[in-house]
Amino acid sequence: GMGLAAAHCFADDGARVALIGRTRDVLDGAAAQLRDRGSPDAGGVVADTADEGQVQQAFAELSERWDGQLNILVNAVGPSVRGTF
Q: Is residue 41 in a domain?
């Protein structure tokens, strides 16, 4: 989606990229793509962005991993629609 496309652009420019998502397998695959594109320490943290506590924990983990340096945040969470229209 748009978030991974943005992450690809940043990785292409050599940025350190981290991802947050709900599924470890998807995160691992995306991080591998980013490492191949120029972000050697790219990785992901599992969290449900609908849960504020999980998001705070994810940011705490990333802050510790990268010495508190966050320069750009791309929020590309898709809607979650349950039910029929």
A: yes
For residue 58, the surrounding DSSP H or E stretch is helix 52-65
Distance CA 70, CA 79 (A): 25
- The pairs formed by 55-58 with CB atoms below 8 angstroms and a separation of 24 or more are 55/20, 58/20
Angle between helices 2-12 and 24-36 (to 10 degrees): 30
Tell me the pLDDT tens digit for each residue of 37-61: 999 889 899 999 889 999 999 999 9
If one counts the domains in the chain, the total is 1
Q: Would you say 7 and 29 are in contact if contact means Cβ atoms under 8 Å apart?
A: no
Containing domain of residue 31, as a range? 2-65
Instruction: Identify whether 80 is part of a domain.
Output: no
